[in-house]
Each structure stands twice: as C-alpha cells, then as structure tokens.
Amino acid sequence: MKVFSDSTRLGGLFLLLGAASMPFIIVEYVMVTSAAPPTGNRTENLAYFEANLPTLVRGWHFEVIAMALVGAGALSRLVGTARAGWALTAIGVASVLAMYPLMIGGYAAAFEADSLAGDKIVNAVATELFYAGNFLASAGLGLALFLEAKASERAAPGWVLWIGVIANSLAALGFLALHAGFPVSLQMVGPFGLVGFVSTAAFGAFVALKKT
User: Fold this and answer.
1) Domain ranges in the chain?
2) CA neighbours closer than 13 Å in the CB half-sphere of residue 87
3) Do 86 and 78 contact (CB within 8 A), yes or no?
4) Which residue intervals of 113-185 are DSSP H helices?
5) Which residues of 196-205 are buried (b: 16+ CB within 10 A; e: fewer)?
6) Max avg pLDDT among 4-8, 126-130, 196-200, 206-210
7) Cβ count within 10 A of residue 117
8) Helix, strand, coil content of the chain in percent (nearest 5)
9) What is the pTM of this model?
10) What is the DSSP string of 51-84?
C-alpha cells in the first residue's frame, strides 16, 4: 500500500492511530476515576486507587503509545507550511510523555511503601506535566490545523480543519487556566480535548489516504 511507502502518508497514519485511540483510553480512565470515593475521605480514596491501579496502568501503557504516535505524526509534518504548529505540538507531546513513567512506576512504589508523601509528590509532578504538556500540545494542534487551513493546498477538507482549530484552541485555553491555578474544572476542558483528538485523527486519515 502507498501509505507504507511515503513518510507523509505514514505521518498521517500515526496521527490517525494515535489521536483516534485517545478518546477510548480517556473514557475508560474517566469511568474508573469517577467511581472513586469522595476526595474528602483520603484513606478510602487512596485504597480505591491502589486497588484499581492495574487497570489505570494498563490504560497508561496504551496512552503513552498513542501520544508517541501523535508526536511522531507531528514531527513528520515539520517540512510543510504548518511546521511551527506541528513543532509546538511535538514539544507538548514530549512533555506529556515524561508523565507516564512517573505515574506507572511512581504510584506503584508509593503504594508499596505506604507513603502518603510519595503519592503526593508523584501526583503534584504528574499534574504539572499534564497541564503544561496538554496546553502546549493543544495549542500546537490548533495552530497547526489553522496553518493547514490557510495553506494554498489543503491536506484535508476545511470543515475538518476548522473544527480542529476551534476545539484544540478551546482545550488549550482550558489547560492554560488549569495550569495557572484558575478555578476551572477539568470536566469542562475534557470534551474540547476529545473533539480535538477526533478532528486530528480525521486530518491524519485524509493525509494517509489522500489520492495523488
């Protein structure tokens, strides 16, 4: 197939596979975490997360691969007119990727040592990487798709690009607010991120399957 013999098409395939996987992974994570006891009861809350850590870790294993594919897809488009946006996306993804080894190994070690301080440290660092990395990645995707929409030859239909621009830009503003400590709920920001991933996956599909 032509998609496997062309770096641009492969980059589109990476974006498709990575971004399309994220909504499913996120939904499973939300299903697990939403069933947790109220945060006011920290003992029960920690016991719940310790019991469900294998499920969360499995999801993070898939998530790190999905995000790596998004980053690789972004890097593959650094030669086009939208390279500034894709470069910012790649930097954001790299920041997020640093979070996964910390969570996968750190939470398990903290629970095993029965260390509340260790759990707090892992959570604080992971949260910092999550907010900052997702802000940069979402802003990068919004900028990249905007520049792709303004290009003389579009790689995808305008409606796909503009939906991606709006969704990723709103997600970026939300993550920036969270990073800055404003009282914004992650549940408010999440849907924009999901639509951003879907539109990015659609863009990747058009790049991978575009007829020449």
Assistant:
1) 2-209
2) 7
3) yes
4) 116-150, 158-179
5) bbbbbbbbbb
6) 196-200
7) 9
8) 85, 0, 15
9) 0.91
10) HTHHHHHHHHHHHHHHHHHHHHHHHTTTTSTTHH
How far apart, in whole angstroms, are the C-alpha atoms of residue 36 and residue 49? 7
pLDDT of 212 strictly over 70: no
Place of tokens 């016991």: 47
43 pLDDT exceeds 90? no
Q: Is the pLDDT of residue 60 over 90?
A: yes
What whole-number distance in Å separates Cα of residue 137 and Cα of residue 129? 11
- The reported pLDDT for the residue numbered 36 is 78
Q: How far is CA 139 from the centre of its chain?
A: 12
What is the tens place of the pLDDT at every residue in 107-159?
878 777 766 677 788 888 999 999 999 999 999 999 999 999 999 889 999 99
At position 53, the amino acid (one-letter code) is L
At 77, which amino acid appears? R
Note whether 141 and 164 are within 8 A (CB). yes
The residue behind tokens 């999801």 is: 59
